[in-house]
Write a structure and sequence with these properties.
Number of helices: 8
Structural class: alpha/beta
Number of strands: 11
Helix content: 40-55%
Order of helices and strands: EHEHEHEHEHEEEEHHHEE
Strand content: 15-25%
Shape: elongated
Oligomer: single chain
Distance between the termini: 25 Å
Radius of gyration: 18 Å
Amino acid sequence: MRITVVEDNEGLRKGLTYRLQDEGHSVDALSDGLEASSFLGQEESDLVVLDINLPGQTGLDVLRDMRARNDHRPVILLTARGETEDRVVGLDAGADDYLVKPFAMDELVARVRALSRRGAVAPRRSIALGALELELEPLQLIAPDGPLDVPRRELSVLSALARSSASAISKTQLLDAVYGAGADADEKVIEVYISRLRKRLAPHGVSISVKRGIGYSLEARG
């Protein structure tokens, strides 16, 4: 799944990101409420992990904005406040679940799985990339005349790029997608995979652009 994490505490945000990526999810991590509201209004994701206490705009306001525009993707609220009335306010605003800090990462992962099992999360089966179709389970790239022979690690890089939509994704994030968070791998290997993918994708109208100091993103014609 593609999961949006909105948490202003840097350590917790990184911890959530790495753990969810370890579980096989693609993660967009944000720290500001106004930024999150704008991002969620434009970008796709399957589930949102949302802190209540955020700079710019509270998590509850972000959630209310989502529901006001008929955005019904599942939301797990995070807060340091454990009183019953705060939980009720969050659930009444449209949250699907609620976790009080501090919490175990295993519990968050279990809540994500529970939402998926009960059908609140509809996992994407494929992503359209111009004339190509990236099937996610099992991971393979399909051209109009049939599957393309693409090595698994290149497919992992392509999947991470495709799941990030228009957002640029860094070499570190791509390394995590291929080898897992914290793996001892050289970022230069990503440049090799990107070069190979560019050659494979170009005949099908799909390109990979680079934003210096930020990362890579996909662009597809048609």
